[in-house]
Amino acid sequence: MKNNVWVCLEQNDGKIAGVSFEMLSEARKLADQLSGKVGAVLMGAGVKELAKEAVAYGADEVYVCDDEQLKNYRTDAYTRVLEDLVKGKEPGILLLPATTNGRDLAGRLASRLEAGLAADCVALRLEDGQLVATRPIFGGNLMADVVFKKDPAMCTIRPNSLNKADPDATRGGEIVDVAVVSEEDKIRTQVKEILAKAAGEISLTDAQIIVSGGRGLGDASGFDLIREFAKELGAAVGASRAAVDAGWIPYEHQVGQTGKTVGPKLYIACGISGALQHLAGMKTSDVIVAINKDEEAPIFGVANYGIVGDLYKVIPIMIEEYKKV
Ligand code: FAD
């Protein structure tokens, strides 16, 4: 295996996403064991200033691809740029975030490079100098160790699953400007409009605390209570598929097998039964609290703390108690 470890950084609205720092911290550990370097790829428009942050978190070289064409994520454009870089520099390991964009990019790139891709990994280690990636399978019921037959070993990394090191602003690193060849006519998508999140809303994948609501809310207005609770805790709002399918909250809030995979420090499930497909997306949370009026609900099987009761009675009491803290 070649010894350089690369990270494809995710930035949104000029801010590097937390999972990027987690990947850089892990890449640093791996590269030190392999006596290699950490490379980071930063794509976007007007993003060059962010490169210093990547250096502080362990990058030796940051390849900055700063171009209007890369302003918004587009599969064709991002794949083209990253493919050229990887083919030119040949890292042994390439980490991407298991976010909506990262998953999309990783799949396309792996196919172009004919490389193996382990998706949604939660741990990485080296054995005899070879990468072993651990990822949940069968809805999170088993953990699989994946090994790679050829370079680069590609992994997408589940946010909040790896430890983030403390940044060191005094670290030195090289910032390399990469010229982006203009091929707009070959890019098959155009971004017409970006629908901004409601002001102050916390992104699910970055959140340390998530309050999720399910069918037990009864109707869409139940999410007003969930949002109030989330605001009090500085939490993001999640939802079960039943709540999303009912049209009570947009799909981007869905947690689970066909929604987002999250791993916050605290996950509070309100009126959610705990179907396997929901658990697949949140089971690795550090602490799970369930509020459900049915003491037999399967969610209590994975919860660290369970409150059997009507969420409309329990949550207002919890909000009042948090206000006192
Ligand atoms: P329910 O199962 O109806 O549970 C509602 C719960 O609320 C019950 O346990 C009830 O006791 C409780 N309750 C009711 N009233 C109150 C109250 N006043 N106070 C407290 N508790 C109350 N689901 C997902 O969530 N995410 C996915 O990504 C996902 N992907 C899927 C993919 C496939 C291929 C399939 C087949 C299904 C998928 N599902 C997914 C659906 C999943 O199987 C469940 O149907 C869904 O998670 C149920 O949502 P729920 O827990 O909100 O609703």
Automatic annotation (TrEMBL):
Protein species of origin: Flintibacter faecis
Q: Taxonomically, what lineage is the organism?
A: Bacteria, Bacillati, Bacillota, Clostridia, Eubacteriales
**Entry keyword Flavoprotein:** yes
What is the official name of this protein in its record? Electron transfer flavoprotein subunit alpha/FixB family protein
Q: How is the cofactor bound?
A: Binds 1 FAD per dimer.
Give TM regions.
Answer: none
Keyword Flavoprotein appears in the UniProt entry? yes
GO biological process terms, semicolon-separated: fatty acid beta-oxidation using acyl-CoA dehydrogenase
* InterPro entries xrefs: DHS-like_NAD/FAD-binding_dom, ETF_a/b_N, ETF_a/FixB, ETF_alpha_N, ETF_asu_C, Rossmann-like_a/b/a_fold
Q: Which domain of life is it from?
A: Bacteria
PANTHER family xref list: ELECTRON TRANSFER FLAVOPROTEIN ALPHA, ELECTRON TRANSFER FLAVOPROTEIN SUBUNIT ALPHA, MITOCHONDRIAL
Name the family the entry cites.
Belongs to the ETF alpha-subunit/FixB family.
Name the CDD domains on file: ETF_alpha
What are its cofactors? FAD
Q: Which Pfam families match?
A: ETF, ETF_alpha
One annotated GO molecular function: flavin adenine dinucleotide binding
